[in-house]
Amino acid sequence: MTMHTKIGVLRQIAQGMGYLHAKGIVLRKLNTKNVFIGHKVKVSAMDYGFPDAAKDRSDYGSLPRGHLTYIAPEIMCTIRVIPPRLVPFCSFSSESDVYAFGTIMFEVLSGQFPFHGMSPEKIIWQVCANQRHALFTFKCSLAIKTLIEDCWAHEPLYRPEFRELFKDLQRHSPLHKKHSSSEPRLNKSIDLLDT
């Protein structure tokens, strides 16, 4: 998938989430496993509920790999183990959906989860302590990096709304558009003048 297509997918997710939030609907478990790309790169989001993973220990709860990175700090800091589940004692909100969208942006653009290779305990500590994943090696425009960081704001009230994210992605999409080889370029026209 080209960078332009990836930005288009993210734009569609932001638009759809903006619609849901305008209707008062919080998706709660926004992640790439709940986002489906259909024919002609049309995106749909589904909510399959908080994933369970059964364990045979009475003091152990778990989530599928990568799911911790979608959980906003205000929720992460309240999670308790009630085997076999991890139960949050804080309500999901439109702001927690925005935090999850920041992780979707990171995953779609980089091809991996934030905090890749870290233990769940370390991820929980990093998120709760506001230790964000470094974006300096991330290959995209500064504007897109800033959007991800804004989505990951530790304070929920500082996170943008989806309608703002949609507009920003719309505005920055041309920065990542690959030009067609059939488009005229200045150096080609100069070469033609020299002959």
UniProtKB/TrEMBL annotation:
GO cellular component: cytoplasm
Domain of life: Eukaryota
Gene3D superfamilies the UniProt entry points to: Transferase(Phosphotransferase) domain 1
Segments forming domain Protein kinase: 1-175
GO biological process: signal transduction
Residue ranges, annotated region (Disordered): 175-195
SUPFAM superfamilies: Protein kinase-like (PK-like)
PROSITE patterns, sorted: PROTEIN_KINASE_DOM
Gene Ontology MF, one: ATP binding
Residue stretches in coiled coil: none
Name listed for the protein in its UniProt record: Protein kinase domain-containing protein
